[in-house]
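Below is how a single chain appears once it has passed through the pipeline. First comes the sequence as given, then the structure the pipeline wrote out for it. We keep one example in the README because the format questions we get most often are answered faster by looking than by reading.
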Amino acid sequence: MKHPVAYPVERVIALCREASDSLEKDISKLCLDPQLLIGKGIAETGWPWYFPKLVSTLREYMPRWIAERHAGTVVTALGQKVHDALDYTQQSRTMTLVVGDARVGKSFSAHSWCEQHPGQARFVEVPPGNDDKSFFRALARGLGLGNFQQYKAVEIRERVESVLLSGDLLLCLDEAHRLWPEVNLWRGFPKRLNWVMSMANHGVPICLIGTPQFIERQKASDQTSGWNSAQFMGRLSHYEPLPRELELDDLMAVARSVLPEADTRTLRALAAYARTSARYLAAIDAIAKRARYIAGRDGRLTATTDDVRMAMQQSVIPADSKLVAALKSVEKPAGRQSRRGGRCHARNCSARSGQPCSFLGTPSRLMLSRRQQILLKRAQREAGLNDAEYRDALETVSGCRSSTDPRMMDRHCDVVLAYFEAIHWRKVDNGELRPSGRADAVFRQRGYWAGKNTSQETSRDRYTGTNLGREIAALETSLSGLGFGAGYCATIREKVTHGRADAHAQHLYKAALERTLRAKQNRFSEQVAR
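Resulting structure:
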């Protein structure tokens, strides 16, 4: 029969299963095509025919999906600030900025909030680089539009804009500092950020999540590209700076979420170690993963206290220590000839006449250190000099066009800093620059480098002393986080320095703090085994 009265159940089920291959496309159409809901309505037309109750089923499934994503999620005090900022962004339909240090959980909190608001928010990590195509492809993937491999950037942008401008989606952009041009683009224009501002002008709620690099790149863009930050600041409705550290209770809660089988003593040890580790929350995750790996290697499903102790003592703590040591020791080599005793090719070098080269064997005394080179580059940015102007200034003062030139010495660095300082404050007086408000700015006050840089006290001496003081302060803070306060540190200082305050005594005190901190960290890990 062409039109039978009934069909076998097996045949109907087979047809439905065959048609359900297009379910993903139909759901995408349901989410992105507003015309689908116009007219008689989905409920009356029975769309799609193989799943007439698709919409009601999705509505029933959504609360359960949200509950599953919310279960086991820890909202720290820092995470609550991120959630509040996103709530405000959604309600006010404006653009906001959340800035916090790396590895404190801001991205996780933002992603968790977006997952708890399906259909209302989209989380997108801004890709690195400066090209438009990778940026708009990331937005398209976040919006569920697809990858658009064969499309041009302008075509992808049109699709993205059509979705954002016709809906009520909040756009959460993580790694927002990548919206600014990358390095070496001195005249680079922030095209990505301009597009974000245009979307905000049309009422699209946008929350930017970034590190302090966002502010630094904004200042650099002001100085080098001529872009006016007032355009961005005028559209920013709220700025939320995040705390640099989490409370011990929050750290323990995070540790409990990644390692629920651990006891309270183990959780406290994990939290205490995270406060002393440069990786912070990532240290807790690393210990938990390593402990589970040890348990799985031994044929067990859950990690024990011994597994956690072994992960801390034999893997994570040594890895952190080696990483810190490696980062401290990274310094650009002075040149192949300084290591192998080869011939020096510096101009005006006495080695060309057959006499011993004054640069060989003593690069650390004459050539600028890596820290001094970085200090000069920071001074260049704060003085608003482009690369050509920077090299001309170096040549005017020292006769060298690069800070890596072996003829550059401490005194040259002093004079160059004083020269850049004069340029900086002259531009400030003319209204071309704004003085930096950062505590670690190179030009904090007028005449600082000109008055401080004497032939008896070089920039290397002061810069080394400043960094030594910071390292000592960081060690004291780490010990304080473990419960050993200022009085304890003062006793150590008195014991090793005997009241002296010279540079050698400071180094002795720093070494003593490092030994004490390692011993206390090891003691915490040993407590886990008891």
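Residues 326-366, 453-458 have pLDDT under 50 and may be disordered.

See the next section for the split statistics.
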